[in-house]
């Protein structure tokens, strides 16, 4: 009986998280009520407070992406390898059922709230991109690491929000090599070219 209760609790939590992601993604934090989430999950609203404590804590768990701490501090792993793992965890991981929304999308729909913007910034820049800055070893390392973040978030948005045909249908294996090539290009640091806009292939100036 105790094992059944544990399974029921886990299933209820999962159903509430999936319902919360859909609601928060569609209506934002302010436009979503706990009764609506509970109704979508088919449970009483009091269970939200029992399992999560508050609407704010439910939101925090709904948008959390599990990424190992210190991911970029292993000296044996190159930046392309680290980006490959983040691509799998942030973009291609299934975060719920087939209709569940991606946590980043859920946060983006609620960025009108300062605390949500702060959480999004911390999760993107402080959690996993901070380690990347140290690994680039360039004067503009933070910029380069944030460009990696922009690449990953952009891929996620193109897949989950825009629904672009090629990216939406592409598998992780099809995508990872191309992403690694772009990250490797960011590691290139030709002397005398840092900070200068690239010219055209025909030798003329870059378009203004």
UniProtKB/TrEMBL annotation:
Region entry Disordered, spans: 187-208
UniProt DNA-binding region: 33-52
Domain HTH tetR-type: 10-70
Molecular function (Gene Ontology), one example: DNA-binding transcription factor activity
SUPFAM superfamilies: Homeodomain-like, Tetracyclin repressor-like, C-terminal domain
Protein name: AcrR family transcriptional regulator
Protein source organism: Nocardiopsis composta
Keyword Plastid included in the entry's annotation: no
The entry's keywords: DNA-binding
Alphabetized PROSITE patterns for the sequence: HTH_TETR_2 (PS50977)
Protein's UniProt keywords contain Transferase: no
Domain of life: Bacteria
Low complexity composition-biased segments: 193-208
């Amino acid at each position: 009986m105790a094992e059944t209760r544990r399974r029921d609790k886990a299933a209820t939590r999962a159903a509430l998280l999936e319902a919360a992601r859909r609601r928060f993604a569609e209506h934002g934090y302010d436009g979503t009520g706990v009764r609506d989430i509970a109704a979508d999950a088919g449970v009483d609203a009091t269970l939200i407070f029992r399992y999560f404590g508050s609407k704010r804590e439910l939101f925090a768990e709904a948008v959390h992406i599990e990424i190992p701490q210190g991911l970029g501090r292993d000296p044996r792993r190159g930046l392309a390898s680290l980006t490959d793992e983040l691509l799998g965890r942030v973009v291609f991981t299934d975060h719920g059922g087939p209709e569940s929304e991606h946590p980043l999308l859920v946060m983006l729909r609620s960025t009108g709230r300062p605390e949500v913007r702060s959480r999004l910034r911390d999760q993107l820049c402080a959690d996993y991109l901070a380690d990347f800055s140290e690994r680039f070893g360039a004067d503009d390392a933070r910029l380069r690491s944030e460009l990696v973040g922009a690449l990953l978030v952009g891929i996620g948005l193109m897949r989950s929000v825009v629904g672009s045909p090629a990216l939406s249908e592409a598998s992780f294996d099809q995508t990872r090599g191309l992403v690694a090539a772009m990250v490797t290009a960011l590691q290139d640091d030709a002397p005398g070219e840092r900070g200068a806009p690239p010219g055209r292939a025909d030798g003329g100036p870059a378009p203004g």
